Automatic annotation (TrEMBL):
<feature type="transmembrane region" description="Helical">
    <location>
        <begin position="65"/>
        <end position="86"/>
    </location>
</feature>
<feature type="transmembrane region" description="Helical">
    <location>
        <begin position="6"/>
        <end position="26"/>
    </location>
</feature>
<dbReference type="GO" id="GO:0016788">
    <property type="term" value="F:hydrolase activity, acting on ester bonds"/>
</dbReference>
<keyword id="KW-0812">Transmembrane</keyword>
<dbReference type="InterPro" id="IPR036514">
    <property type="entry name" value="SGNH_hydro_sf"/>
</dbReference>
<feature type="region of interest" description="Disordered">
    <location>
        <begin position="451"/>
        <end position="472"/>
    </location>
</feature>
<feature type="compositionally biased region" description="Basic and acidic residues">
    <location>
        <begin position="462"/>
        <end position="472"/>
    </location>
</feature>
<keyword id="KW-1133">Transmembrane helix</keyword>
<protein>
    <recommendedName>
        <fullName>SGNH/GDSL hydrolase family protein</fullName>
    </recommendedName>
</protein>
<keyword id="KW-0472">Membrane</keyword>
<feature type="transmembrane region" description="Helical">
    <location>
        <begin position="33"/>
        <end position="53"/>
    </location>
</feature>
Length: 472
């Protein structure tokens, strides 16, 4: 009798394990084909069904009620995972909003916490704040001044990974307190966003406050790719010599930049992949199971700031970390010339700045930028073209000097842990020190007259009514 009980118990345990493996396999298939994964809902549902079957077969009323009451717990798990999955998936990024011209833009008058933890080490723990006109906040800004320093760019200008007081505009304000310093940076943006904002007067609420202006564009090589559609944004084409806005890039246009020649590559991998032993397959399955069960939507919803630390091992398996540090991928190997649309966009932006604001565009260029895999691949064509076009520019190598070059040498030699001017290997945006150095350089150029503010031809009539336009 005892032996039969043990056999029955072992059969139940084995059956339970097999059931869990089947359920988790189904969950992975749902993730692959339908884009969602809720392992706790599958497991909870299975438990509930088993308990309800047991309740139906129970011989006594007390045992029947016990099974029913216990079944309530997994039923609640199923409901909570489903409800909070929906809530989390539909939760909006409050810092970003859709935009009919730009594709997306910053949201006005919001503040949000940003936190990155890798291997239980806090990389940054900061707050992003936007003003009422959807610009990254410049603390203690001299908003009464009508002499404005306007900086456009992507996440380097916006200040991804640094707090409000450590952005480039924050440091500029400290050095140039008489200026109204404006941060027009948007993460994942580039020269094409700058052009669209200037062309369609999207920043008229802010620029309408200015009688004198300095315009600076902080460029990184990846902006070349962005102007061609690697990320969501305004699309421009050169049509018979005219730089014409063509709406925003579609998902299909963006996908070209992320494809890995996968059909060929994956087939080769499958063909050449050695046959795994049973133990290897089990180890792989257990790892997938562990990864699946690491997340709970219920826990994530109620404790969003107590998320488990990211693991460096997992990050390094991702496309963005192919080189050992965060870098935008280089899939299609562009061959860039001075006639590229990216340079057409900069020329057109410079033209608009001259016509509308009687000013010129200055460029800060991140040469040898490890934020993308191609590093210094486009440095020569960028600098040569800017020089030929008569657009004044300064390189980060020039601005920071030997320290920056030493940082680059460490990267070339495989040292990804000792950056002086980057946040971390896990986030290669400029850190506070880099922003401070660049701001000091710009301030020096302004104070010595190399970079000069330009006065509007007619300050009273140049701008459209700011109440009719702005960040739509």
């Amino acid at each position: 009798m005892l032996q039969n009980k043990w056999i029955k118990a072992i059969v139940w345990i084995i059956g339970f394990i097999v059931l869990m493996m089947i359920l988790l396999k189904l969950d992975r298939l749902c993730l692959r084909y339908f884009g969602f994964s809720m392992p706790y809902a599958w497991i909870g549902g299975a438990f509930a069904i088993i308990l309800l079957i047991c309740a139906k077969r129970a011989t006594s009323q007390g045992l029947k009620l016990a099974f029913i009451y216990i079944a309530i717990v997994p039923i609640c798990v199923v409901i909570s995972e489903g409800v909070f999955y929906y809530k989390i998936q539909n939760k909006k990024d409050i810092l970003i909003q859709p935009h009919k011209i730009l594709g997306y833009a910053l949201a006005p008058a919001v503040s949000e916490k940003g936190k990155l933890i890798v291997d239980d080490k806090v990389i940054y723990d900061i707050v992003y704040t936007h003003n009422e006109n959807a610009l990254r906040l410049t603390p203690n800004n001299n908003t009464n001044s009508r002499t404005c320093l306007n900086i456009y760019g992507g996440s380097f200008v916006y200040g991804a990974g640094v707090g409000d007081s450590d952005t480039i505009t924050a440091y500029l304000q400290k050095n140039l307190s008489q200026y109204n310093v404006k941060n027009f940076g948007i993460s994942a943006a580039g020269a094409h966003q700058m052009l669209a904002r200037l062309e369609f007067d999207l920043d008229s609420k802010e620029l309408g406050q200015c009688d004198e202006n300095i315009f600076i564009y902080e460029a990184i090589p990846h902006h070349i790719y962005r102007a061609k559609g690697v990320l969501k944004g305004p699309k421009y084409e050169n049509i018979n010599g005219e730089i014409i806005y063509q709406g925003t890039f579609s998902d299909e246009e963006q996908a070209v930049f992320w494809r890995k020649d996968d059909d060929i590559e994956k087939n080769k991998i499958i063909e050449n992949k050695p046959r795994q032993s049973f133990i290897q397959r089990m180890a792989s399955t257990l790892k997938k199971t562990k990864d699946q069960l690491a997340e709970s939507y219920t826990r994530e919803y109620f404790f969003p700031l107590i998320k488990p630390s990211l693991k460096s091992k997992n990050l390094l398996e991702g496309d963005m970390y192919e080189d050992g540090f965060f870098a935008n991928v280089d899939r299609i190997k562009l061959d860039i010339t001075q006639d590229d649309i990216y340079f057409d966009i900069i020329r057109q932006a410079n033209k608009i700045i001259k016509e509308k604001y009687n000013a010129k565009l200055y460029v800060i260029y991140w040469d040898y930028d490890m934020h993308a895999q191609f590093l210094d691949k486009y440095d020569e064509v960028v600098q040569t073209t800017l020089k030929n076009d008569g657009i004044p520019f300064y390189t980060i190598s020039e601005i920071i000097g030997d320290d920056y070059k030493e940082d680059l040498e460490r990267v070339k030699n495989g040292d990804f842990e000792h950056f002086k001017y980057r946040i971390s290997r896990w986030d290669t945006h400029p850190n506070a020190l880099a922003n401070e150095k660049i701001a000091e350089f710009i301030a020096t150029q302004i104070k010595n007259g190399t970079i000069k503010p330009s006065r509007l031809h007619n300050p009273n009539t140049t701008h459209d009514d700011p109440n009719k336009k702005g960040q739509e």
